[in-house]
Amino acid sequence: MKKSGFIKFAPPAIFVIVLLFLWDLVSSLHIVNEYILPSPATVFKTFMTLTASGELLSDIAVSMLRVARGFSIAFCLAFVLGMISSVVSVSKWFFEYLVHFFKNVPPISMIPLLILWAGIGEATKTIIIILASFFPMYMSIVKGFTGCEKKLLEVGTVFEYSKMRLFLNIVLPSAIADILVGMRIGLGYAWRAIIGAEMVAASTGLGHMILFSQQMARTDKVIAGIFVIGFTGYLCDKCFALLVANFIKGAESNERN
Q1: Cβ-based burial of 110 (10 A; exposed 0-12, middle 13-18, buried ≥19)
Q2: Number of CB atoms found within 10 A of residue 170's CB
Q3: What SS3 class is residue 17?
Q4: Mean pLDDT over residues 211-219, rounded?
Q5: What is the chain's percent helix, strand, coil content, to nearest 5?
Q6: Does the pLDDT of residue 125 top 60, yes or no?
Q7: Which one of 93, 157, 170, 201 has the lowest number of neighbouring Cβ atoms within 10 Å?
Q8: Is residue 43's pLDDT more than 80?
Q9: Quick one: how far is CA 226 from the chain centroid?
Q10: Distances in Å between the alpha carbon of 10 and those of 63, 99, 170, 233?
Q11: Distance of alpha carbon 54 from alpha carbon 36, whole angstroms
Q12: 3-state secondary structure at position 149
């Protein structure tokens, strides 16, 4: 197990080390102006300064709260609409085309309109995250609901299940895997949208820190912020993947018992 784990993590670790070495080499040889590309040591020093001051931890907490709020609302909407379209097939005629239309519209393009409608407060930031994470979750949830095996549905029909009981007892359990996959994808999209969300008159958060640092020509803070967003999103994704894996294993063990 240890050997296989080492083999698994060695290539990406080597790749990261090589990238850092090349980055440091370019900076030390002044191939690129340090104003444009500061050295890894400068970025790390900035990261430690931001961490020690508490500014970075505060921004991470604010961004995580915004992501969690927008993601939770988006999931509830996606689940309800997916359930309605599964139980009441006629309902697709009312909103299916709108869903397919808006899934191709970048949330950032909606910012001017959202500012006019919802102002520059937290509502607009939340809506941007909802727009980014809703559609992948909705598509995956609908796929799970409509992909249930016909034999299982026939069993429910034999036992004269109502549409709602058929959904709760057969369709929903069979769709759990697709729902969880959609949630994981949606969470990733929510983190990708945080920069656009915090472009709207934000005074806190990682997106605000990056944009404000760009205005102040602090490239080191910009790069540090990008790394923090990427690493925080990666940790959230891995934690969610671990929860999904444990949930699926628990469900399989219960079925065997």
Answers
A1: middle
A2: 20
A3: helix
A4: 87
A5: 85, 0, 15
A6: yes
A7: 93
A8: yes
A9: 15
A10: 32, 43, 43, 22
A11: 26
A12: coil
